[in-house]
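Weekly puzzle thread! Below is a chain. First person to post its structure in token form gets bragging rights.
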Amino acid sequence: MPLNRRILHGVVLLLSSAILPAQAQIGSLFSATPFENPTEITKPTLTQQGGSLLLSDSPEEISSTSKLPGACYRDTVSGLFRVFYHHQNNLDSAVSVGVAITNSSSSPELLFSHGLGSGISVYPNAAGQTALANFLASHGSTAFLTVLQPGQSYFSTESTPSGDTDSGFKEFIAISIGAVADSAMLPVSLLEALDGKSLADKESSQIEASLPIDFASGKVTVTTLVYSGSKPASPAKLAILPADTHIRGTFAHADRSGSFTIKASGGLQYLAIDTSAPGELYSDDMPGEYELGVDAVDKNAKVYNDGNYGVLYKLAVKINNGANLLSTSPMGLLMRPTGGAGTFVFSLNGSVQQSPYVDYTSVWWFGEVKHKATSATVTLETSLTGGSAGPQQLLFDPKFNGK
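Winning reply:
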């Protein structure tokens, strides 16, 4: 959701932010009052990485059966790509929501998944949280899906009940078989080239360079769609549904990576991520955080992905304890949604943590870093979940112990 949708989607689980467990533990919420005046760290410069990102959040609400089946967004991409969609079913009956991938080349293509997450809930923020958590749990694992002949489509959709939101966070790889006619004869070297870990920071061109001879990045037409009943025979030809005030578009890179240092002697410190896009009110973006995209179905208009929905942030954080610092207390890791509220997800060194409902008056304690040596480095991964409001303020507290 862009800035004009960064609002609460109803009153959701409000009690969860008001009640703490008898003995606080990681995952608890605390009042934001003691965390009001942190020191901002020097903003790191982010590197734009990964494959293409297709964002489908317009129309966010599906309200007319007369236009179904219909496409919410469509573009043609190649190689590694991610699809983020977030659509609410306002009809009286269930519909299928998701993505169709069509081989738009003249050669057979192999389709792989590289992390699949979806969530369905009457609460849009809960749907977005589930989608991101499932994506992070499966990201880095490559699985073969199907062989697509020219013009053939693969569907990854979910049945979405009336009133529910379907949020999707899905990544795929399309590989053209080229001169290799029999998919049963795929060389082992191809599967090795598609190993999940080796793809983590690669762009499509780098993936193609690592493929064996006769293989190349495949060209596919990606359609996010809504339909009732049977799958449409030609998803790539469905009429585009009229846009609303939200954003849809294609962006060159789906990931952002960067590194920075937190000094344990520096007191409470913070870093803001997924603030508003450049030129927008309250924008406080990091260098390299945003890039202009193109709305391929609305006159190729230039668009920003306000909030960077679908973008995965990969942050390497070094905790510098200092050679002479006596304190060895763990560094508390907390998050405050300064732009509103929602349910959020962080991966800390590969361990996925999900927040309760939290608003701007509270902070969520999602982890800690023990640094008895002079320093320690941890990896944080996150994205602004569909249905939740940013920005997220990451807080680093060298004295926080859950009290």
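Puzzle host: Confirmed. Bonus trivia for everyone else. The longest strand covers residues 109-121.
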